[in-house]
Amino acid sequence: MEVLLFRRDQQHNNDPTSDNIAAHVSDESNSVSDIDTSFDLEEDFRILRDYSLISIGQDGSTFSMHRLVQLSVQTWLKSQGKPEHYKEQFIHTLYETFPSIPDHENKDQCRSLFPHIKAAMLQWPTSDWSLQEWAGMLCRGAMHAHDAGDIRASKEMASKSMEQREKLLGANNLETLSSASVLVQAYLAAGQWAEAENLEIQIIESFKVKFGESHLKTQELMGNLAWIYSTQERWLDAAKLKIRVMEQTMVQVNQDHPSLQLMNNLSIDLRALGHLEKARELGLFALAKHIDKLGEDHPDTLISKCNLALTFAGMEQWEEAESLQIEALETLRVQLGDDHPLTLEAMGFLASTWKALGQTVDALGLLRRCLARAERVLGPDHPKFLQRAEDLLKWEAEESGGDNKS
């Protein structure tokens, strides 16, 4: 019964079994809950299954509960005055189980637990300690949602996390600033450049007060601000700030080259400013470092490959650009899926290259497929969607004009 009660707070479909959430319950200390955690989870799952209260998935690692069973348990808990008790344990278990730094290496674990984070987002606890864990859990969920391309969830979770941490800990607390940084990334993914810039500046000012301008974390944040300038096509401002950050950080960490992200971003600015040969050299160096450090299939490596391809395109080396873009797009589809924003961006890049190569029919077909997905994933008001939609109209007009002439 304890497993069933705990379970009622979770998402009703595709729930991790004893390999993750439920296994963690068995390790809970009495200080967290007065539940007797000495029960045999495997036996309890068997009993629940035999009574048709839950069903085990074919993969053996997930289970689901019927809606009516879940509703009955919720009603019973309310009658007993216990829902808050189990809600807090559910949040605590998720907080302890979900990776503290979601990344490419633990994405499968994050993906399996993420539906529970979404369910818990709607369940505000009442105690301060549980609210702190709830906010921390949402911050981690927002990071995973961003990496997974779920822009709406990332923005909502990061916003709720920052708001709650600010209430509990203050606006300048490091945990609050951490949530704010995740929200900046969500704003960028959503195409809300002004909101991202304003919030990033606030974060930088807080770090300057706490640690000083030369602190590595402050410099990292200034590098992020430079990238925001790039997204707004403020290329000169971006390049100047990135070079300043690179000089500071390289001296402090005693490196002979800047961070991978800074190298990538600076190559974009150099390309936009017309320094194509310098952009190509830096792009080649950055890609080699990415492959060496992260591997061929890491998303950051694939972004670096796309950036280099755009530099080749700027130099009108279309075959080299096409080759890199096809490699990157195929791997992005496998790693992140067809609907991920990075995959969609790579589709748009390849379509532009095909158009330049005179493969107009293929280019139009790819861009139409890209836009159909992007409208659903990004929304019809996203700047990147609008830019690609404008490209499509222009290409179709050119093609129509060419047909009329013939």
From TrEMBL:
Pfam families: TPR_10, TPR_12. This is MalT-like TPR region domain-containing protein. Residues 8-27 are annotated as: Disordered.
